[in-house]
Structure formats: C-alpha cells, structure tokens
Inverse folding.
C-alpha cells in the first residue's frame, strides 16, 4: 500500500512537470461592461473631467459604435476637452497662478509697500491697496512682501515679473537693439516707438537680464525672454488640432440616426479657470445641442488651423502689462490696452514678424481650410437657432432651448432664449435670434462659398442690441464698408505672407478711430452690454 | 527587478544543492529503502551511527586523522550488494543496480546542505517553476504596484496640487516559462563541481493605461496623444510587446562545493561560483528598465563571482531526523558594456512651454546625446539563511540584501530616469522556503522529484512574487565511480 501511494504521488508529480513553468506578471485587465463604461463616462462628465469621460465613451463606442448614449457622451466630453484646451491656452497667454492671500497677509503686504514706496510698482495706490491685493502676483513674488525681505528684495526680486521697465532702462535697451540691427521699421518699432512701448512690453525681469549683456545682441536669448508660445503651437499642431473634428463626426452620426433620444446630465458646464467663466449647460440634450457642439469645435479647430500657420513666437507676456486685471477698466483703457498689446505683438524687435504666415507648403491650404472651418461654425450656429425656432418639444430642463413661458411648445415672438447661462448671460428675443441666424448663415456662405453679404445684416443685429453709449459703432462699422457688403473670404482664400499682420494693423488703425471717438464722447465707464 | 533576478539565479543553484540533499535523504523514506531496512542483512550497514561502538570498531585505524569525522564508506562494501540469488528485480540488472545504488547511498548517512556528491557520480538536474509577480515592496516596505504608476502633480492647482497632471500605468502583464538545468560531478567525496543554467520563453505585454488629469489643458486626453507628447519630450513610443525568439538564455554559473568537515552531528562546507554573462539582456529600445517596452533581462548578464558558506548540525539519535542549517552567501558582478537606448531629440519649445506651465519635467531630461554604449555594474548582493529539516520536508528563512547597481554614462539624466521608473536600486527581501521531495525509485529511476514553495514575507524595493512553486527532478548518474561504489566492486 505504501508503495502504491508513493508511486501514485510520483506519477502525479511527473504529470505536473509536463505543465512547465509559468512566470506570470501582472493581471490581465478585466473586460469592462458597456454599462460600466457609460456610467463612468457620465460620472466624469458631471465632474467636469472631459478627458477621463472621453476615454470611457471612446471605449464604449469601440464595443458598439451606434450606442446613442455613448455618442452623446463623447460629444459632450469633446466639448469639455475643447474648453480645457482653451483654458490651458489662456493660462500660458495671460500668465500663471495668482496667489490668493488671506486678509491679514494683504494688510502686511500693503504696510510693506507703503514703507518701501512701491505702490506704483504693483499698479495700485495706498487707498486701493487692500482691494487690489494680491496685485496679480504669484505666491513666490507675494511672499517677499510678508517674509521680512528688504525693500530692495521686494522691488528687485518679488516684483520684477510685473514691474514695467523704467524709461532709462528702456532707452538703453532699445538703443542697443538698434545697434544690433534688430530695430527695422516698418517691420518693427523705430527706436522712439520701442522706447515708448517698452514699459508695457518688457517687465524688469526681461530688461535687467538683457541689460546685463549689452552689446552682445542676445535679443533671442531664451534666458531673458520667454519663448514659450512656439511650444504651445507645436502641441496644437500635433495634438490639439486633431480632436475637435471628432465632434462633427460623432454629432453627425447622431443627427443621421432616426431617434429622438435625449441624453441627460444633472451637472455639466463649460468652464474656464482664468478668467473665471462658466456656462451652465446641464439638462437634456438633443440635436439642437449637437449644433452648438459643432459650432464650438469648428471655432476652436479653425483657430488652431490658423494659429499653426503663422509665426507665433511673440511677446504674449505684454498682455499682463497692458491689462490691469485687478481693476475694472473703462472703455478707453480697454481700447488703449488692446492697441498697445496688438502693436507690441506686431512690431516687437525681440520677436519680429509676429503673425506672419509661415513659408511652408502646407500654410496656404491650411489657412483656406481654417476659413472654411469657421464657415461651418457659422452654419452650425445658424442651424442651432433654426432648430430652436422649429422645436415644438417641451423646453423645460433642456440644456439649451427657448423660454416657453406660455408652455405652448412654440417659440413665440414675445419669448426669449437664454443662449448663455452662468457667469455670463446672453438672452435674445426671437427677432434677435432670427437676425443672428441670418447673419450666421450669411457669414457661413461667405467663408464657404465666397459669397459677400450685405452690411445691413450686421448693423441690424447690432441695432437690435442696446449698445448704449457705444451706439455710434453701428454707423462706424457701416462706414468702413462703403460698398455695403462684407467679404472676409480673401483673407483665407488669397492669403499673402503678411495678410494677418496687415489685417491686425488695419484693426489697430480702426481701434485708434474708435478710441478717438470714445474720448470725444467722454465714454469712460465699462459697458456691460 | 535586477535584485529579484539575482535572487532567482542564486536560488537556482540552491535548488540543485537542496535537491541532492533531499534526493539522498529521501532514499531513506522510499518504499525500496523501507524494503532495504526490512532486510536483516542490511540493517547494520544502514545505520552504523546507531551503534557508535560498532563504528569505532569498524574503522578506527582506517582514517585516524579524521578524529571523529564520519569516514567515507569503505570500498567495495559487500553489504550494499543486492542479493541476486534471493530477489528478482524488475528490469533485471538495471533494477538490481538501482537497488544497489539506493542501498549504497543509505549507508553513507548523507544529510545537510553542505553535502557533496560521492566521487565519480554525476547529478543532472532539471527544474521548472511557477511564479506570479504580484506587487512590489517600496522603499518603506509597503506593497505597491509592480511598476509604480507614474504620476506628475497638477501644475495648475497651486499652491498645493489637488490632482495629477496625468497618471500613467505601464500595465505590464505576461508570462515566462523557465527551465533550469544543471550538472554536478563528485570529483572526490568532499569536492563537487557543477554548472547551473536556465532558459526562459518570455511573452510580456505592456498595455499602458493613461489616466488624464489637468494635462487635458494641453489637449492631451488619450494614450495616443500622450505618446505624441512623449515624442515631443524626447521619448520614443514604447514598444508594446516582447516575445522571445525560441528561448532566452538566463544566468549560468560554474561552481565548486567543498565539504571541509563532516561528522554525525556537524558538517561545514563552502561553495565558490563564477557567473558567466550568458543571460539575455533586454533590447535597449524595448527595455522595461528605461520605460521603453516590456523586455526584461533574464539574468544579470555579467561576469561575477559568488561565495557561500553553510553549516549543518543535528541532534543525536533518535532526534537525528531533524537537522538545522545556517548559511551566508554573496555575489559580486563586474562592469559590463551595454548598448544605449535611442532617445529622440526633445523639442525645446515644447519643453519650455510645459516648463513655463509649471509641469515637473524631471522625468524627461534630454537623453538624445547618450553615447552608443553605457557601462553597467549589476548590484552585488548578500544573503543569510537559517532552516531546519525533518526527514523529507524542510523549512528555510532566507533574507537577502541587494546593493545598488552602477550606471556609467555620459548622460547625467539617464540615471535619473532609471530611478524614476524605480525598478532598480538597493533593497532587501525575506522569504520562507518550504521543500519536500519524493523519490523516483519506485519507478526504478535513480532520482527524485522535488516540490518547493516560496513565500516572500518582507522586503524593500523589491518585486514580490506569489504562487511561487518549483518542481525539480534530479538524476544520479555513475560516471566514473571508484570500485568501492561499484556493484560487485571491491578493493
């Protein structure tokens, strides 16, 4: 018996040997169910995490490409992605994280600024100091004002990223740039223009660095000036530009399906962190919303198509120096800041030839495609309004719809539609909506088929909104188009190397006219409408 | 990872030694052995230790210099001879020889881990095993994923990052079939030389899971988009799959064990090893160490030297079925030259842009200027073990410490990347080893099958394997035994 057991055990072991060795590593992931993917996607959408949601819906659609819930989900996720991408782009263009100090730290900072006579450097006064705090400073900058640093340190270390270059330094710098051959009007400012624009073009951080190397002609030295927008452009080119077209692909698929299915989200917003901006779009989603999604995607895609064909290595930090984000500004200041910024971007000797079209074979066709994409954007927006005008469904709870006050399932003449809800609101009447639709269709046709449209479509729309003190703009715009038609298509269909530069230069000229009129009319308050 | 492989390599040679012990010890428990015990004429020969007075009488003058050490069995001991006239053996002469060998080995009172193979005999070993890479002990001895999920803190939520910029799970899975083999030969009764090696077939996949965070602000949401971003930062797209072409060769060592002292209660020995650089080294552009793919080094792949010292002791009868072992071992490896992976030229503009956004880019230094080769010194290691055995079953605790391997390259960022991935570095691990053997003599095969199970109890910066079973078989082959070990032999 003992021998029998031993033999059996031995045979068993020998059988085991034939199985060989298996070294397993990690676990094979379990296959997620469709319901799980859709649930997760929806969850992340409501959390404002469009990218996470996108991956779940994408996977769901890999299982079933016709799943209507997955299709709606992925469109909404793509919308969120577009907004996130816009947010990131604004981040790099407008600056970085601004410190959010408690009140007592602001009191300390203001006391210190007073002791050091530095109110001017942080764009404030003794009276406004508390309300202007934290002066658009990043944490490490703000810290110098409350950690016992000397006045010298506060001024030359803490505030060097926001302090405009002094006139003396500007003069030295611009003359050196001239000696180095970088001042070349009309492509750049002349020396005087450079000196006058310099305080709002370069912060002390830039100019101090440059002045340490006078005569070395290191205008392009990355250590002195921020060359970051080219990286952003490359990411647009390789990544950002590729996902907005997916919105149209999925939205069109839904629209072509014979279904009146409505998706629903309890929370869903389009948000920007800086400047704080939120559009509430929760509720029920139908085909109308899909037109809005397409318009958003086309707008962003068109912008990226254009942004990747032009020279974007330019002085975007000057945005910060021109615009005082801390205080609400009047129309005059805003226009002046806009002019100053545009001039700096166009004529900066450190970053010359901003917005010039790249000398690349892909550039011209891409610009044309950019124009056409914007044409589709206008078409989609017009389709949204058309859809709303013809929508006889219950409006309550729709993500976007008209305010059916009498609940007759019809957009009556006296009823409005709130196109934007949230931090910014835009409500239009039915006639305004129709005017908006007509203008959008006309612009779409202009950019898609090069059909000019009458200026009246624009002026009538402007007229329908109460512009208040800015009413003069309606006549002014009409005066700029003496033949009574607008044709924006040449900019995209017949681009020249300097088309965009010329267009922006023309815009600057027009802004000077507007500024003059604003000054003449004494319009100073910021206009809400 | 490197350390874990080193342990595997060390373990392979231990398997051989241990198997021999068990092989020989188990013969005592085999049915054939029992049968031999039952034979009155073998009793006295089998257990001379039970009758110390007899032993003293038996060979007091034969080897006086041994002073209490158990002498090798006398040449041509007639007591081992099966009685052909009285018994009929299956397989005729072969069966008789197996019976003879069994009896001969029983006579020798072979026990302990310091055992050597009798002169003129060879042992051929084959081993198989299973193990599953389960988790990994981190620096703080906490269990984490095998390859830590790469996380970069959110640069947008300041001052304290709330979430992640992204999370990247390498998603490694796969299997490896391994085959260990070895041969040993008894040069003398006290000196054994041998060679151990292993082969493996490997199939490993990398299915990364990309979890986007605030990187969506840069437009990056999917794995493909992330890989595009990696390219811009100078990292090639990782390979997704590695499958060995046939088998990949593992570590090989040539060893010699000398049993310098042995008596009934104590035995001491040491083993010297030379490691040969036979192991398959991961293709540099697919290596998991660099995060470029799932290819693994199957061994250290470098010249090295190892040394181990073992002592065994056991109580007197009747408790001599229990034995205790203590041991220490270590290995040192020499610098080896390896091909560098090819990294891409990072796009400085993208790098600057992301840097300006506050993204931590420590993991992405510029490695495009690496020389064609770099120099690697595998980590040296030491280990200590203690265990006991009861008959065919043994339990051992072994703790090993791995030191840091050295990378010499012209690129300072290279080491940083390797550290970030975290698969190499100093560490230690402890494990319990359970072993049991079954003789193959009932099948008239002069050998033994052994089953081992290892359980990793503790560790730092080391892989954790579970379901770690090993099955081995060892076969005794008479190559050139002296007359005293031959059937019918004599002086």
């Amino acid at each position: 018996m003992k021998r029998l057991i031993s033999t059996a055990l031995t045979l068993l072991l020998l059988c085991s040997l034939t199985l060989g060795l298996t070294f397993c590593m990690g676990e094979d992931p379990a296959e997620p169910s469709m319901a799980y993917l859709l649930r997760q996607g929806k969850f992340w959408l409501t959390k404002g995490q469009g990218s996470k949601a996108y991956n779940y819906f994408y996977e769901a659609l890999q299982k079933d490409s016709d799943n209507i819930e997955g299709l709606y989900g992925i469109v909404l996720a793509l919308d969120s992605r577009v907004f996130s991408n816009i947010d990131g782009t604004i981040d790099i263009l407008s600056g970085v994280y601004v410190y959010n100090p408690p009140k007592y730290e602001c009191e300390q900072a203001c006391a210190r600024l007073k002791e050091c006579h530095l109110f001017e450097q942080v764009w404030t006064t003794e009276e406004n100091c508390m309300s202007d705090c934290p002066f658009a400073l990043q944490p490490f900058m703000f810290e110098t004002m409350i950690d016992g640093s000397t006045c010298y340190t506060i001024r030359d270390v803490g505030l060097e990223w926001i302090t405009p270059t002094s006139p003396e330094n500007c003069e030295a710098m611009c003359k050196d740039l001239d000696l180095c051959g970088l001042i070349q009007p009309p492509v750049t400012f002349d020396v005087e223009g450079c000196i006058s624009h310099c305080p709002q073009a370069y912060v002390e951080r830039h100019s101090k660095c440059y002045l340490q190397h006078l005569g070395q002609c290191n205008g392009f030295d990355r250590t002195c000036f921020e060359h970051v927008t080219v990286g952003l452009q490359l990411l647009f080119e390789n990544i950002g530009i590729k996902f907005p077209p997916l919105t149209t692909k999925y939205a069109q698929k839904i629209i072509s399906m014979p279904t009146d299915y409505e998706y629903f989200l309890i929370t869903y917003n389009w948000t920007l962190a800086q400047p704080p901006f939120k559009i509430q779009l929760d509720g029920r989603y139908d085909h109308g919303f899909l037109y809005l999604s397409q318009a958003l995607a086309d707008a962003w895609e068109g912008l990226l198509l254009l942004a990747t064909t032009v020279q974007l290595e330019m002085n975007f930090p000057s945005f910060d120096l021109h615009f005082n984000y801390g205080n609400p500004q009047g129309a005059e200041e805003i226009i002046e800041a806009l002019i100053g910024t545009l001039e700096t971007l166009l004529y900066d000797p450190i970053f010359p030839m901003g917005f010039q079209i790249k000398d690349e074979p892909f550039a011209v066709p891409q610009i044309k495609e950019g124009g056409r994409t914007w044409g589709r954007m206008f078409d989609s927006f017009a389709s949204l309004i058309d859809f709303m005008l013809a929508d006889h469904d219950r409006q309550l709870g729709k993500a976007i719809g008209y305010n059916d006050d009498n609940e007759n399932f019809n957009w009556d003449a006296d009823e409005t539609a709130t196109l934007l809800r949230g931090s910014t609101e835009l409500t239009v009447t039915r006639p305004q909506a129709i005017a908006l639709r007509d203008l959008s269709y006309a612009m779409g046709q202009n950019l898609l088929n090069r059909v000019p449209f009458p200026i009246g479509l624009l002026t009538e729309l402007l007229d329908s909104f109460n512009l208040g003190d800015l009413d003069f703009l309606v006549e002014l715009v009409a005066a700029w188009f003496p033949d009574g038609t607008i044709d924006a298509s040449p900019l995209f269909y017949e681009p020249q190397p300097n088309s965009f530069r010329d267009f922006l230069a023309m815009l600057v000229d027009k802004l000077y006219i507007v500024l003059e009129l604003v000054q003449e009319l004494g319009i100073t308050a910021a206009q809400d409408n | 990872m490197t350390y874990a492989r080193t342990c595997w390599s060390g373990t392979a040679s231990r398997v051989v030694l241990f198997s021999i012990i068990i092989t020989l010890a188990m013969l005592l428990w085999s049915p054939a052995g029992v049968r031999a015990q039952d034979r009155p004429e073998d009793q006295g020969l089998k257990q001379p230790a039970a009758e110390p007075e007899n032993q003293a009488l038996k060979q007091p003058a034969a080897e006086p210099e041994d002073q209490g050490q158990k002498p090798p069995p006398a040449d041509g001991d007639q007591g081992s001879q099966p009685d052909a006239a009285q018994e009929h053996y299956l397989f005729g002469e072969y069966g008789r020889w197996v019976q003879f060998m069994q009896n001969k080995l029983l006579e020798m009172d072979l026990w302990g881990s310091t055992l050597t193979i009798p002169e003129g005999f060879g042992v051929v070993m084959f081993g198989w095993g299973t193990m599953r890479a389960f988790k990994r002990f981190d620096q703080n001895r906490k269990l984490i994923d095998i390859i830590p999920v790469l996380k970069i803190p959110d640069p947008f939520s300041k001052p304290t990052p709330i979430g992640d910029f992204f999370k990247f799970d390498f998603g490694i899975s796969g299997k490896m079939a391994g085959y260990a083999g070895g041969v040993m030969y008894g040069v003398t009764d006290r000196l054994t030389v041998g060679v151990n090696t292993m082969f493996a077939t490997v199939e490993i996949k990398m299915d990364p899971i990309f979890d986007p965070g605030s990187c969506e602000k840069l437009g990056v949401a999917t794995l493909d988009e992330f890989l595009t971003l990696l390219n811009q930062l100078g990292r090639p797209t990782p390979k997704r799959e590695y499958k060995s072409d046939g088998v990949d060769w593992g570590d090989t060592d040539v060893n010699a064990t000398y049993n310098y002292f042995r008596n009934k209660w104590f035995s001491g020995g040491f083993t010297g090893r030379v490691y040969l650089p036979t192991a398959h080294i991961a293709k540099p552009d697919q290596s998991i160490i660099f995060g470029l793919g799932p290819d693994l080094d199957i061994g250290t792949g470098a010249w090295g030297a190892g040394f181990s010292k073992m002592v065994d002791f056991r109580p007197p009868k009747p408790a001599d079925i229990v034995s205790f072992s203590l041991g220490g071992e270590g290995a040192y490896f020499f610098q080896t030259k390896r091909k560098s992976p090819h990294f891409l030229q990072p796009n400085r503009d993208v790098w600057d842009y992301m840097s300006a956004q506050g993204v931590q880019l420590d993991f992405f230094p510029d490695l495009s200027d690496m020389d064609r080769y770099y120099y690697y010194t595998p980590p040296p290691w030491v280990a200590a073990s203690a265990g006991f055995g009861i008959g065919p079953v043994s339990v051992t605790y072994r703790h090993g410490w791995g030191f840091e391997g050295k990378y010499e390259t012209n690129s300072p960022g290279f080491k940083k990347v390797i550290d970030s991935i975290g698969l190499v570095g100093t560490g230690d691990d402890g494990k319990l080893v359970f072993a049991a053997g079954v003789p193959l003599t009932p099948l008239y095969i002069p050998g033994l099958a052994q089953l081992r199970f290892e359980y990793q109890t503790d560790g730092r910066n080391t892989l954790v394997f579970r379901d770690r079973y090993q099955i081995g078989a060892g076969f005794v082959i008479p190559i050139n035994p002296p007359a005293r070990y031959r059937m019918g032999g004599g002086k």
The longest helix of chain A spans residues 68-94.
